[in-house]
Amino acid sequence: MQINLTNKTILLGITGSISAYKACDLARLFIKSGASVHVVMTPSAERFVSALTFEALTRNAVLTESSESWASELNHIDIGKKCDVFVIAPATANTINKISKGIADNILTQTALAFNKTLLIAPAANTNMIEHHYTVGSLKMLGVNEVRIINPQSKLLACGDKGNGALAEPSAIFHQVAKALLEEEFWIDRKVVVTGGGTREKIDEVRYISNFSSGKMANALATALYLRGADVCLITTMGHAHIPKEIYTIDVESAQELLEYTVDAVRVSKKGKMSKATMNSSEPIHLIQKKPYLFMAAAVADFTPKYPQVGKMKKADIGNEWNIEMKQTSDILTEVNKLGLITVGFKAEMDREKGFSNAKSLIENKNIDGVCYNLLQDSQSFGTSENSINFITADNSVDLGTASKLDLSFKILDESQKLENEQK
Asked: Judging by DSSP bridges, how do beta strands 191-196 and 287-288 pair with one another?
């Protein structure tokens, strides 16, 4: 799904690591999202990738030791002033240790010292170098000073060693930078549970009953929440390979599994969190808690086979007809303890006359705060990249229009944000 960073300006710092070539892919991701990208390179970085490569990619002059100019904005003071965020990827152990000590002996570290907005660092170094106590201490010091560390991977390194120190994937770095640009105070650290996908009710070990839900709306909603800064738990029956890796996901199959994990996740989400201001204080510790949210986007089966079979039923044993006895599944929105929780349901209908009223009735019948209503045409409406949503509350309804599922998710969050004030 395409994240929109239009009107955002990113400063990309590159140091002398073999993984410097991956910064090209990272720059492409930023540009594809609509962001403007400026680049600053250390002399060592230019040994791996030329400044010309990044100028061709970004259409902006690259700041290097030799290109710095005080007759323009291409210098270590002015370049940061026009950028919203600074990400150093890859960042060598040498650069990490220098920045943590305030050392500014090259064009990149000078730029970092002068930069007064959000700084992100994506380390890339040999395992022994990244895990050396000096580097570990430097990373901790940077974290204390609110520099965001994008953790490296553990894998086979270019030097032949296997272990921690490989640069995070460009997509992972992109997501964390996008989060730094798009997060909002209302959602930061707020615990949110999202359910998605159509449940699969087992007939036997190879057959199940399900529906056409793709889970894409839930994936988009979880992504939007992550980008806004929320602490997201996605409980889904469908694939989620393309969402940010930092989103905590739980894979389920049946309605019963979804119920159990949702009840547990909601219970956990209601626990308080220690504020940063009290962590190192001698004052009595108190807990702060933003009211958690539940977005129930899963398409839960109304019925499940009463007697699921062990093994695979053979067609010859079944005969020409197969009558499967069914029983109702539990109603998750009814079972969940919604005290201290803001709950938004999703309702897909095909009845043009009664669909809206059916969706609105959920607010009273299920004791929830809002409903995202979607009028479907037919089964082909499932799995598309776009959706149409009408956001319904007890006193109002807002047509969010037709848009990509990610863009719609941001609109849903804007409307959902108002629900907390309505509860007060």
From this structure: unpaired
- How confident is the chain (424 residues) per 10-residue block, as mean pLDDT? 95 97 98 98 97 97 97 97 98 98 97 98 94 96 96 83 89 98 97 95 90 92 98 95 94 95 94 50 56 95 90 85 91 92 91 88 93 77 80 94 95 94 67
Which of 3.50.50.60, 3.40.50.10300, 3.40.50.720, 1.10.10.10 would CATH assign to domain 191-423? 3.40.50.10300
Which of 202, 201, 207, 209 minimizes the C-alpha distance to 315? 207
H/E/C letters for each residue in 79-143? HHHCCCEEEEEEECHHHHHHHHHCCCCCHHHHHHHHCCCEEEEEECCCHHHHCCHHHHHHHHHHH
Cis peptide upstream of residue 308 (ω within 30 degrees of 0) = no
What are the sequence ranges of the domains in the chain?
9-182, 191-423
Give this prediction's pTM.
Answer: 0.91
Active site residues: 159
Is 191-423 in the same CATH topology as 9-182?
yes
